[in-house]
Design goal:
By secondary structure, the chain is α/β, with parallel strands linked by helices. The protein is about 35% helix and about 20% strand. The strands form 2 sheets. An 8-stranded parallel sheet has the order 2-3-4-5-6-7-8-9, sandwiched between helices. Strands 1-10-11 form a 3-stranded antiparallel sheet. The structure holds zinc ion.
Length: about 350
């Protein structure tokens, strides 16, 4: 069936520009976004240089004007994303930042995180956190879960909203479910790879399967789908993270973490969540449209997509518009495909 819906919104993309344009740039990233049904995307700030000053945010947003998709820019929460000294949230907001995030890494110092929560609340920008402590060996489930617990606790005591990025484990989802019931102003996201794959993907795909937080167990996959269905997880994001062929050809320990996702996240979600019966179509669409729009405080637009909810197709490398092709979905057959994306910018 051919279905029309609002343009999709991705709150978590890495377009690698400036600094790593060999992986992706704002032009190629925009084309990848439109291919996947996205008309609005939020770019993360872990570029080179890190986007941590109003001048840099202003210059970046200026570059977005002529692009065929609506790009928004997140600003770093701490100077150089070093986790020590907060950036000037008010000035960053005035410069046009859409959100505050040190994504790529956690703010490890609890006092800095507490101050960031209060400062973000004061200026009315969403604070998005990569709640995972990279110092814990193997970055197992505990590395994520204790940081999620910490951030929920801090948000409650700061009486400030928090958005937790890429939730991956059963325990993390349950902590967030309990916090929501207790009145903490928490929203969160997961990504398609966390409900489509388990850690076993490493055996098949090697370093293509390396991502942070890591892929988890079958039990976690089931719990993430349940948390999407019961509304604990508000948003499905891409965490689009391009890396070159050479980088991903390295051995497991030296390859960088991350996967591209702009072109496949919606199709993967239709396949694994809608056609499985876990979510209704309105429930699924809300996680790509209304929920991210409300988090960002964006106005409604006339942007729209048309998709075939039943078309079966298999992703090949030749389909990929992104500059990088580090997708775990190559060779996977989806059910549901974007047919048209109209951004009326
Ligand atoms: Zn992250």
């Amino acid at each position: 069936m051919r279905i029309k819906a609002p343009g999709l919104i991705d709150i978590h993309s890495h377009l690698r520009d400036p600094g790593f344009e060999y992986k992706e740039d704002i032009q190629s990233g925009s084309l990848a976004a439109l291919t996947g049904g996205y008309t609005t995307i939020v770019c993360m700030a872990n570029t080179s240089p890190v986007l941590d000053t109003p001048e840099r945010i202003r210059a970046q947003i200026k570059r977005f004007e002529t692009l065929p998709a609506r790009l928004c820019q997140a600003a770093a929460a701490t100077i150089g994303q070093q986790g020590r000294e907060l950036t000037d949230f008010a000035a960053l907001k005035s410069a046009g930042a859409a959100a505050i995030s040190d994504d790529g890494q956690a703010i490890l110092d609890a006092k800095v995180m507490y101050d960031a929560l209060q400062a973000a609340k004061a200026v009315g920008l969403p604070l998005m956190t990569h709640s995972e402590d990279a110092r814990i060996p193997g970055r197992g489930a505990a590395a994520e879960e204790y940081m999620v617990a910490r951030d929920l606790t801090l948000a409650k005591y700061a009486d400030a909203p928090v958005h937790i990025q890429h939730v991956t484990t059963a325990k993390s989802a349950d902590l967030i479910r309990q916090a929501k019931r207790g009145g903490t102003a928490v929203t969160c996201e997961t990504c398609a790879h966390y409900f489509m794959f388990t850690e076993d993907l490493r055996r098949v795909k090697g370093a293509i399967a390396k991502v942070f937080p890591p892929l988890r167990t079958q039990r976690d996959v089931e719990a993430i789908i349940e948390a999407l269905a019961d509304g604990t997880i508000d948003i499905i994001a891409t965490d689009h993270a391009p890396h070159s062929r050479e980088e991903k050809a390295r051995d497991w320990d030296s390859a960088p973490g991350g996967m591209i996702g702009l072109e496949t996240t919606f199709a993967a979600s239709l396949t694994a969540l809608y056609h499985s019966g876990a979510l209704t179509l309105p429930q699924l669409l809300a996680k790509f449209t209304d929920n991210p729009r409300e988090l960002l405080g964006l106005p409604k637009t006339d942007d729209y997509i048309e998709f075939d909810s039943d078309e079966e197709w298999t992703l090949t490398e030749a389909d990929i518009k992104s500059k990088s092709s580090n997708s775990p979905f190559i060779g996977i057959t989806f059910r549901g495909r974007i047919k048209e994306t109209v951004c009326v910018k």
